[in-house]
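Review form for a predicted model. The reviewer records the input and the model, then writes brief findings.
Reviewer: anonymous (R2)
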Amino acid sequence: MRAILRLVKVTVSQRGTKDVEPPKGFLLPVKVGSFKVSVYEAHLDYLLVQPEGYSDVFPFRGPLRISQKPWASYCQWHNGPLEEADDPTKRLYCPAPAEGFCSKHRRTDRAIYTLCLDSRSPEALEACKTVDKKVQGEYVVYMVDFGGDRPKVGTTRRFRLLERIAEQPHVTATVLMVTDSLYKARRAEMALSKEGVGVESWRHKWVLGLDLYFSATRLTEFAERASKVLGEQWSGEIFTVTADVPHKPMLAEAELLVGKSFRVIGAWGGHLILEGDRGPLALKYSQLMHRDSLLVEGDELGLK
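Model under review:
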């Protein structure tokens, strides 16, 4: 049967702190000391899937089988809370075909929250204000270095910070600001982008295993600039979320994997890591999300 991929669930745990020193014999233009980087590791728990025709979702740990296109898109609404973590396996998801949110759920808190984060329009900023009135939450403005000219800045709910960072290809990351206002967080993010301190979006690329020292140096420079723009004191804390997966998998496109079965060996940076015949593959799972893109057997989900 076809199934909708709703979530790639990972657990992030702390491994320790790493003292990152300048490379030996490397001449730096200015004297820069060492960095302490908190190291976390992401472990794949399961794929959360919703069989067609069901509102219930199920944890799936079987082989990845991609269905033949065309794929239908489904409403992204579910009944989980916005303000705190929940057990994803207990959620109910809307089973209606739709791009984004269906007409029934287009004005729900979750749809309004999504609009706030997905756009810079006046309507999106009004959506941020609406969320502040209806949801008591804590939000962080974060910065990640991914080896580009400028780091990426973003906003997420505080309890989701480590999972959110694990979803993005990065070398190092830091928190710039914590606030109880989603509107304030989004305005801060936009201000940093406008001032050239960071970018709000970028082309995903695989960066696992790049040099921590130069990344931490670059991140520190931009975080200090960001603190001046925001008028916020930067903590100086730098962290990274890694995963026990191959550092250089082959990037794959979903349509080229149709009709085959793959063992899923991990997840990192918005990619599922698959065991391929000629080595590990990295598949960007945004290609599959909220679409009937997977094939599962009923007994794999405990269905008769």
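Findings: The mean pLDDT is 92.
Further findings: DSSP finds five helices and 13 strands in the chain.
Recommendation: see findings above.
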